[in-house]
Write a structure and sequence with these properties.
The protein is an alpha+beta fold. 57% of the residues lie in helices and 11% in strands. It has 2 domains: 113 residues, Tetratricopeptide repeat domain (Serine Threonine Protein Phosphatase 5, Tetratricopeptide repeat, Alpha Horseshoe); 102 residues, Glutaredoxin (3-Layer(aba) Sandwich). Strand 3, helix 7 and strand 4 form a beta-alpha-beta unit.
Amino acid sequence: MRTFKQLGRIGVIILAILSAPVIEALAEDSSSSAAKLAEIQQKIDAADFKAASNLSSTYLKSNQSDAKAHYLLGQSLFRLGKFAQSKVELKEATKMASAQHMNDVAVAANDLLIKLPKDLAAPHQKYSVAKIKGRKVAAAGFARPRLLSFYAAWAEPCKQLSVDLDKVHTEYGEQLEILKVDVDDPANQKIMEQYDISPVPTVVFLDTEGKVTNYFVGYDSATELNSSVKKALNKN
């Protein structure tokens, strides 16, 4: 009579035999995807953005969860001057890449979002009430003006902005409420939709009635932040 140990070994061998075709198929799919993405990148490098756009669109029909493909399509559309369509793809690329821990793709897509025409990169207030983890942040009757800082942990400019915001809080904390909004937290999806947030960092200023009074996209230094804060507090 076969022992349980022997039967276990037989089971492992059978499983390995049955799994081999599946593993080979997955390897082939991965190789095929890499080759297709490389082909699209070559078209972009050759400035053949129309071909790159067409190849990306075709590829995404059966690979919707491929963050890099969304980025390549967004990049192609950006180069073709189709900025509104590019924005859609780049936002999707950023969201997917962040979730898949593909920070290099997320950063590249975000960098292009920042370069979109101002009217597309700018936040837009769509409705009057939103919440951050259950807390209302855009309703009438604020005691103080508010600053919403939309950030992502993988975006380097956000790190310096966070440091400078802490300094602003130290100086103006009693006059200005500062809320930092992590765009990768699903709980903050509604407020991101409310202001149509695209790149990070994006900083939005609200008056005591919840209306947008000022904003800026991207971050270079504390100069613009301090100037915007003083303006929000009527200290210019």
